Amino acid sequence: MSIQELNINLKNYFIKSGFDYVELPLLYDTGIFFETSGEEIRRKMYSFIDNTGKEKCLRPDMTVPTCQSFINSSSKNGEAKLCYSGPVFRSSQENSNHSIELNQSGIEVIFSEKNLNNIHEMDVYILKTAEETITRLGLKKFRVKVGSLKLFNQFINTLKLPDRWKQRLVRHFFRRNYFASLLERLSEGVGYDNEKKDSILKEKFNIDTLSNESLKELIDPQNVRGLGSRTASEIIDRFQLKSLNVISKSDGKKFVDLINNFLNLSSNLSDYPSLLRDFVKLNKISSFENEILQIENFVNLISEKCNLENFYFDNDFGHSIEFYDGMMFEIYDPTGQHNLISGGRYDKLLIDLGSKENLSAVGFATNNNNIIKLV
Is residue 215 in some structural domain? Predict the structure, then answer.
């Protein structure tokens, strides 16, 4: 089977399974990918300036264009089952001027969560469809790795960290190098405790601690450089605000250890709820029972629809594409060397692209360049 035949084979399979085929252009304005897909896609995007001065790119992904096509369509149904098949283009990391053509076939299900009987219904439907797609191609042995960005966000929100730090950790989870640097900074402590405040005052002004009024008198905008457009009062207020959101170095280290221990949780999917429950109990994490029940619900539903032996859960798992915000998964061959399918849940993308309705979405794309090596 050639790669083109595989593309057509999967396209026809999805159409026969009830999905509407979407014919997508090859060329797009770069803006929709800059705003939705994240750093990894931006770095690999094959882009150029056209003769009108606009920046264009060959499509690096087909989920965003498919969702954009749905929003721009005349359909008023509010829900859809869509499919696509064909090449996407991403630049080589070794040579940014070298275009790489990858072939994908995929499906996207757009729906209203209020119409579901079970909150995980569509997530499990996508996993089941992905499993059936792989087995239909004759690949009997494979592994499904599952993770949840939503679960990570819920865990971070249980921590007694300043809100700005919770937001940073959640927002930058996909940027793994920067995320690691945030954890390193957190391990050194957050904010200005009394020791830090005294140290700063001693270093900058050679004085011991002062009241707010004394500090305002000391920081004279006429004599102190580096104020920019801020007033002395604004600087003092900011200084004191930071001192109110203090995490000591010892506590910061404990938070970082706890986050890393959470991310290290992984197991066969059937064992994961118990593993998570033991972790929560051991670390005395409050207000997490509902999240555990939801994971148990998710696992039970998968066990009814799929072969649970193929699935394992990994907390330290996230795609490089940043529009995912819930369940995420990848399917590999037994060796783990070939990624065959990637997908997940992305509830915010449609709103970001201009949808007026509060719709959810979940889907996956096959990696046909890898699949063709095995079929």
Answer: yes
Write out pLDDT tens, residues 169-212: 998 898 888 999 999 999 988 765 555 556 666 666 666 655 55
Greatest Cα-to-Cα distance within the chain, rounded to the nearest angstrom: 79
Is residue 375 one of the residues assigned to a domain? no
* Domain containing residue 200: 195-244
Q: How many domains does the chain have?
A: 1
Taking a C-beta distance cutoff of 8 angstroms, is the pair 218, 205 a contact? yes
Locate 199 and state its tokens.
């140290």
- Span 152-157, average pLDDT: 96
How far apart CA 32 and CA 47 sit, in angstroms, is: 13
pLDDT digits (tens, 9 = 90+) for 247-268: 888 899 999 999 999 999 999 9
Sole residue written with tokens 């104020």: 227
Would residue 203 count as lying in a domain? yes
Q: Is 206 exposed, middle or buried (0-12, 13-18, 19+ CB in 10 A)?
A: exposed
* Whether pLDDT at 117 is above 90: no
C-alpha 148/C-alpha 139 separation (Å) is: 26
CA-closest candidate to residue 353, choices 80, 61, 32: 32
At 242 the pLDDT is 55
Residue 224 lies in a domain: yes
User: Residue 248: CB partners within 8 Å, gap ≥ 6?
Assistant: 189, 193
52-67 burial code (b ≥16 CB/10 A, e <16): eeeeebbbbbbbbbbb
Q: What is the DSSP string of 290-323?
A: HHHHHHHHHHHHHHHHS-GGGEEEESS---S-TT
CA distance 346 to 328: 9
Torsion sign, CA atoms 31, 37, 40, 46: negative
Give the other-Cβ count within 10 Å of 109's Cβ: 21
